[in-house]
Specification:
The protein is mostly beta strands. The protein is built from two helices and five strands; from the N terminus they run ββαβαββ. It has a single domain, classed as SH3 type barrels, CATH 2.30.30.50. It has a five-stranded antiparallel sheet with strand order 4-3-2-1-5. The mean pLDDT is about 95.
């Protein structure tokens, strides 16, 4: 499975608010961050909760606290499946 994103790429998270389980935190939806690496290939948690196994690339994405919470001078890194990400 080839990686769509690479370290340094800017991405924006999905704004979709599904009516089922998701591992994309609400506070991170529609936010911009920077890919800092790969976190392997894992089944998409949203589908696994429904009994469907669909492996996909997971990325480490760094966000500024300012972007996520409106304040703070630190960063937050999240492991996010490719389906949660789009080009900025």
């Amino acid at each position: 499975m080839s990686e769509r994103y690479h370290p340094g790429d800017r991405v924006r998270t999905s704004t979709v608010d599904p009516d089922h389980h998701t591992r994309l935190p609400h506070y991170a939806r529609g936010k911009s961050g920077t890919v800092i690496g790969s976190d392997g290939v894992h089944p998409l948690a949203d589908l696994s909760a429904q009994g469907i196994e669909q492996p996909q690339q997971v990325y480490l994405v760094r966000f500024s606290a300012q972007e996520l919470f409106g304040q703070g001078d630190h960063t937050v890194t999240l492991s996010l499946w490719e389906d949660y990400l789009g080009d900025e």
